Amino acid sequence: MSELENIFDDYVSDMASIRSRIDFNQVSILLSELQAIRKNGKSVFVCGNGGSASNANHIANDFFTVGLKAFSLTSNGAILTCQANDHGYECCFSKQIDRLATQGDLLIALSGSGNSANILRAVESSKKIPIKTFGIIGFDGGKLKALVDHPIHFACMDMQKSEDFQTILGHILMKALI
Predict the structure, then answer these.
(1) Which domains does the chain have, with CATH numbers?
(2) Residue 109: DSSP 8-state
């Protein structure tokens, strides 16, 4: 077996081990909320940084494809950089929530660590509206795990695997919404 095959097998084995520890009650709650959002014509906002930002774009696109009004707060570079420049990077998502979200909407915050200031601020802004908040979080869950209404925590100390689970969960939810 090649070194690459060994890396692959170890990676997939670790992903299966992490999967066995997921609280699917929280995933079921998110699915129910997404179904209600679609039925009621409300909006879903998704945000994240780095790889999680790319995942936010991907998940919002997939949700849009199955009839949700889904928006990635990372997708408009002009808005993102303007808010970061004018108010600070920690406010780049919360300012968008303040202006776009209305009661009955939903925020999905993607984070490997659960400690990014801009993600935490987005959740805090969401609670003032109020809208329900979900976190899809890796590592130990960080501050985000306690802050969101519904944490979906992948106990994994690896950023790439944490981000993989964000995408996998997005795809599973999309398939369940078809």
Answers:
(1) 3-177 (3.40.50.10490)
(2) E
Distance, C-alpha 174 to centroid of its chain:
14
E-assigned strands of the chain?
A: 43-47, 69-72, 106-111, 132-137, 150-153
What is the edge-to-edge ordering of all strands in the sheet holding 69-72?
69-72, 43-47, 106-111, 132-137, 150-153
Residue 142: exposed, middle, or buried by beta-carbon count in 10 A (0-12, 13-18, 19+)?
buried
Chain segment 18-37, per-residue pLDDT in tens = 988 888 999 999 999 999 99
Closest CA to 92 of 65, 105, 114, 73: 73
Cβ–Cβ < 8 Å for 107, 97: yes
The pTM of the full predicted model, rounded to 2 decimals, is 0.96
SS3 51: helix
| CA–CA gap between residue 136 and residue 60 (Å, rounded) | 14
Which residues, in sequence order, are bridge partners of residue 72? 46
Confidence of residue 149 (pLDDT cuts 50, 70, 90): very high
The whole-angstrom separation of Cα 74 and Cα 61 is 12
